[in-house]
């Protein structure tokens, strides 16, 4: 049907494209041509745009490309501290301590119970750590995969678990080209993912007996797949740090180059160069090295001069370069510089808040995606089993996720802003607490309990200190000095508009209103004069304080300079003494090394003489060992041949038995088939006799029906016969393969035995080279020990033969039992038989390997004992020599340490005395300065007191 529809559609499409093409060709003659600079290719930009392509998203992200990007990103994350820190930071900021479930079903009791049970289950499977690992994998590898599996070992009633695997295991195993690009994803007709091919083993595992082609198909409901997607139609992800990978490498290379340049400049003290012509060179060898003494002058040859390396690294632009490249690296993660570098020294408060806006907005967007693609699916799988256990509804209830809040940089300002927003109804407690990652209901209940407890204990809540309101007058002003002047007046006395005391007009002791006005003007003049005098005193006090501070700073500076000069002189004398002691120690050490070298030569000559003396014994031991190994090899070969013959006979017997069983089963099936056919023929004959009276049409139909049934029976008989023949051929081929495998195994064992024999001969040669210093009594012990080991080896071989015979009997019984089951399912029994044969072969091979290993280990232990006896004697002599040398060296080191300790004690004593003297002088200067300040303050206070008294006296007058 689709093909029929596609033909007319293709015809219409072709006609339309032809018509449009003709019209376009007509318009092309008169149309204008527009160009884009970015679409042009010239000599300047052709290399830059050389790698640009038009591949689709899945084609561009082929498995090879993604594997290479993942490998490089993992390498950089393992070796670059900035890369590792950025990945860990973005995972910690996104996941935090872990999202908390907040139910919204409307039933508070049920909601709290579900939240508590889900939290316990998430702690039991360590869900929050798994989420952080998945976020790191998404940033580093480009995608993260979690499997919803059954885990009976979880310490919770719900046995659902989240198994995190690497995206390398999501692979199609290169089945078809389409699977190659989707790489492990199975789609339906609507491009929806319905399944995932997950490899059983990681492609990078180095373990043994791993088949990398084995995979399992998981339905989409059991797989959580979240990846870094930037293009439509992209089904697999790539690392989020892909654009920054070259920059990470440049940052590390530049840092190492700067360090290498600085070390090189510091290692080479001076270079000696000349401008003299080559006809008259000085007697200096090129690339020659000379020693330079500290703090000494040097006389160079005529025409030569000494130049030192300039320490130009690191340059002044080193920090600028690192800042810019780290800023560029972190931009692809929407991460500000101070978070990426862990350094906020160049930031102010406003810059930090602006940069963090973009970063935390991307974090909120990423959290929303994780809620939809990861957390909701995990909760749905948990709820399905939880609802069955507790008898709840199957539908997933309404819920939301609560994440960690952002830490405030200025809590006081944020608290004031939140209070204002609540007061003006522009926010809610739920919104404010959610920003801090808390449940507002739980927080309010906790606060209510705290308030109730405070009230019950009689503890009054402390009021916060009053703060200046900038919007209503700015900073708080100091108290007016007029308060002190008017302290003696009655506070109940009336005042005028300017705050001055006014007359009550009653006559009394004062004059009329004119006198009151005059007294008010006089008080104002007194206040002005008092304020001026107070300002003058403050200015004088400030100038005197500045002068004293400057004097104190100059005295401290001179004292510090004097202390530095004394310390430099002391350090110089100490260095000279250490240099002299080191020279003396070097001479003594050279003498000791010469003496040790002569003793080593004598010891080496004595060892060579002993080896030459015992060389004649080596040939006899080697010949005897060769005879023993040859005898052992012949016995093992005969044993293997006898076992091979017995296994071959057993296999032949099993083949004949299975063939007989198959033949009997075939005869039985043929007889049953013939009987059924005879019954059917009798039935058809009776039917034919019964319907002779019917019409001709019915007779023809019945005849045709009979013919059809006969043909079907013939086909069934043919199918049974062909199936029997195929089964017989398969059994024969399988038995032939088993026989061939047994023969190959025997040949392999013989070859391994021969190779082992050769290896043992080579090993004996190497061992005899090391056994040249053994004595005749040790040889007799070795022979007796070797005979004992051979006897034990024969006993173990007999035990192994008995075990093999018992295993063979068990194998025969098991094979007979399984042969009886061939009547029900031949294919199933064949698979089981193959598996059993492989298991038995592995057991036999393991038993033989263990036998060989035991014999070899016994021989190696004996030889090791003999070699160790010789080595101990040599080591004892060498240890005695080394002890004598170490004793002499220790005495020299003690003398040097004693001299250095005395020198250090003298230096520390002088430094302590100098520091004490400096501290004493500093204390004296500080006490003098404080005394002068106290005297100045006392004088000022006296002047103010006299001035206040004089003012008060004038006011009273």
Major sheet description:
3 strands, antiparallel
Helix content: 55-70%
What's the β-strand tally? 10
In angstroms, what separates the terminal alpha carbons? Answer: 124 Å
Let me know the average pLDDT. 75
User: Shape from CA axes?
Assistant: flat
Strand order of the largest sheet: 3-2-7
Task: Name the helix and strand elements from N-terminus to C-terminus, one letter apiece.
Answer: HHHHEHHEEHEEEEHEEHHHEHHHHHHHHH
Q: What does this protein structure show overall?
A:
By secondary structure, the chain is mainly alpha-helical. Among the domains are: 57-241 and 356-401, no CATH class; 405-457, no CATH class; 629-870, no CATH class. Helices cover 68% and strands 5% of the residues. It is built from 20 helices and 10 strands. The chain has helices at residues 2-27, 57-60, 63-79, 81-95, 108-124, 127-141, 177-182, 245-267, 318-331, 337-341, 349-390, 411-423, 429-435, 440-457, 482-485, 513-613, 615-690, 696-770, 776-820, 826-956, and strands spanning 100-103, 143-150, 160-165, 185-187, 193-199, 215-219, 223-227, 271-274, 304-307, 399-402. α3 crosses α4, α4 (81-95) crosses α11 and α16 (513-613) packs antiparallel against α20.
